[in-house]
Structure formats: structure tokens, C-alpha cells
């Protein structure tokens, strides 16, 4: 039986250097539950090291967590990669780490904190997660798809790091699964502004606890999995977006 799911597919943890330290996996899941969110995507900048902690926390609270990542391409375009399995998210992370130059400057960009499901600090990531990889956008999308994930262009209504803001257009050869808008515009405005055949999703891009769930997308699905989201984005077997 199909039923509606409320999804916020773009949430950062304290691993992203531009977030608040109280964006722990436990804090995120608690706030998502409070906001009535059924599915969250953990998408830190160029890393998925806090995804498993969020997944383990969410199991106890009946929330589905997709392990993922917000990858910055060499063109400085941000794209979300979301998966059902942590193993596939970690494989993407391996590709990203092999192509991510630089080291983090905590004074300039902030701490990059790796934590467990209790919020206890396990360590600090010293890679320049806020930076751009040397991977072309098209290759990032291909890698995500090869790992059975979905690729969504991040916050396309923003001037910085959105595909339109960076490139000026959406190349025809890209096999994106969807475009993401921020809560700053409505679905109706987005459909008028971005005339293409891509499905449009909305997520919070939350960096602070109160932001979680401020942007969301409703789907009609059998269960809260990436596999079902794929079908909904393609309008297959009754699965669909509920605008």
C-alpha cells in the first residue's frame, strides 16, 4: 500500500564546517521527529562520516535516514548523492577523498567534528571539506548512479554553488534525477522559473537545528527508501511527488 512520506533530503551535521556544533545525529533525528519528517538525507560537505551514527539513532525513532553527501564538483557546483546503503555512500566518499585537495583551517572555516550516535566526539576531519573536488560534475553523477544512488542538483535557486548560478544553465547531457530548491521559493515559482523536464524537490539544507524540516518534499511511496524515491521521481508504479 502506498502512503505519503515527508522528506527533508539535505541536512548537514556538525561534520560540515559551516554548521552549529549542536547538529549532532541525535539532535537532528529528534528535531526531525518533532517536525513530522519521515525521511532525512544526511548530506555533509564532501563526506559521509556522520551518516552511520544518524542511521543508528533513527532506527529507534521510526525515521528513515539516507546516508549521503553534498559533493562539490570542480566547477564548484554542489550535487547531492543519496543512498540506501552506507557501504555505497562510503564508496562515493572514497572517490571524493581521493580527489579533494587541501586541509581544513579551523580558524577560518570551523571544526569538522566526527561523532557517534550519542553525540560523543570521535575525532576531527582535517580534509578541506568546504572546498571543491577535482571531479567534473558529469563524472560525480555517473559515480553516484553506478552506486545505485540518486543525484540531485543542490539549491538551484541560489547564486552560489547552484548549477545555474555557477554554469548559467543546466547542460543537456547531465543525467540528474532531480533539481532541489530552497524554502525561499515555492514549487509553483520554481516550475515557472525552471522550464525543463527535471522533477523538482525542496529541502532545508539545514545547518542549524531549527532549520530542519523548513524545506521538505512530500512523496507517495511504499516505504521510505531511495529505491522508492527513484520511482517517485520517474512517476512509476503509482509512486509520485505530492506537490
Describe this protein with a few key phrases.
8 helices; TIM Barrel; alpha/beta; 9-stranded mixed sheet; 27% helix; 11 strands; two-stranded antiparallel ribbon; 243 residues
TL;DR of this structure?
The protein is of the alpha/beta class.
How is the topology of this model organized?
Blueprint (H helix, E strand, L loop, with lengths): L2 E9 L13 H10 L4 E4 L8 H9 L4 E9 L5 E5 L3 H13 L7 H4 L3 E3 L5 E4 L12 H10 L3 E4 L9 H5 L10 E4 L5 H7 L6 E3 L14 E5 L4 H8 L6 E2 L2
Parallel strand pairs: 1-2, 2-3, 7-8, 8-9
Antiparallel strand pairs: 1-10, 3-4, 4-7, 5-6, 10-11
What do you see in this structure?
The chain is of the alpha/beta class and 243 residues long. The protein has a single domain, classed as TIM Barrel. The chain contains 8 helices and 11 strands. Strands 9-8-7-4-3-2-1-10-11 form a 9-stranded mixed beta sheet, with helices on both faces. The longest helix has 13 residues. The protein is globular and about 45 Å long. The two termini are 20 Å apart.
Rg over CA atoms, rounded to whole Å, is 16 Å
CATH H-level superfamily: Metal-dependent hydrolases
Domains, number: 1
Q: What strand line-up does the widest sheet have?
A: 9-8-7-4-3-2-1-10-11
Task: Write down how many β-strands occur, each being a DSSP E stretch of 2 or more residues.
Answer: 11
Give the ordered list of helices and strands: EHEHEEHHEEHEHEHEEHE
- The N- to C-terminal Cα distance equals 20 Å
Note the main sheet.
Answer: 9 strands, mixed
Q: Any idea what the CATH architecture is?
A: Alpha-Beta Barrel
- How many distinct helices? 8
Low-confidence stretches: none
What's the oligomerization state? Answer: single chain
> What is the global morphology?
globular
Classify the beta-strand content into a percent band.
Answer: 15-25%
What structural category characterises the helix and strand content? Answer: alpha/beta
CATH topology group: TIM Barrel
The top level CATH class name: Alpha Beta
Amino acid at each position: 500500500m502506498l502512503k505519503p512520506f515527508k522528506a527533508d533530503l539535505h541536512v548537514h551535521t556538525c561534520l560540515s564546517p559551516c554548521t552549529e556544533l549542536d547538529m549532532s545525529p541525535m539532535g537532528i533525528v529528534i528535531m526531525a521527529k518533532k517536525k513530522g519528517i519521515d525521511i532525512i538525507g544526511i548530506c555533509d560537505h564532501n563526506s559521509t562520516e556522520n551518516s552511520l551514527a544518524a542511521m543508528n539513532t533513527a532506527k529507534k525513532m521510526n525515521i528513515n535516514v539516507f546516508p549521503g553527501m553534498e559533493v562539490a564538483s570542480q566547477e564548484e557546483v554542489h550535487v547531492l548523492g543519496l543512498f540506501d546503503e552506507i557501504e555505497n555512500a562510503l564508496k562515493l566518499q572514497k572517490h571524493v577523498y581521493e580527489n579533494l585537495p587541501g586541509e581544513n583551517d579551523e580558524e577560518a572555516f570551523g571544526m569538522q567534528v566526527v561523532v557517534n550516535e550519542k553525540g560523543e566526539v570521535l575525532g576531527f576531519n582535517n580534509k578541506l571539506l568546504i572546498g571543491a573536488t577535482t571531479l567534473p560534475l558529469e563524472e560525480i553523477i555517473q559515480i553516484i548512479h553506478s552506486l545505485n544512488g540518486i543525484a540531485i542538483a543542490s539549491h538551484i535557486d541560489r547564486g552560489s554553488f547552484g548549477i545555474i548560478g555557477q554554469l548559467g544553465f543546466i547542460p543537456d547531457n547531465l543525467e540528474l534525477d532531480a533539481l532541489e530548491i530552497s524554502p525561499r521559493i515555492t514549487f509553483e515559482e520554481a516550475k515557472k522559473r525552471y522550464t525543463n523536464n527535471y522533477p523538482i524537490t525542496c529541502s532545508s539544507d539545514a545547518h542549524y537545528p531549527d532549520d530542519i524540516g523548513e524545506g521538505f518534499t512530500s512523496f507517495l511511496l511504499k516505504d521510505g527508501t531511495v529505491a522508492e524515491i527513484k520511482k517517485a521521481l520517474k512517476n512509476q508504479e503509482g509512486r509520485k511527488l505530492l506537490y
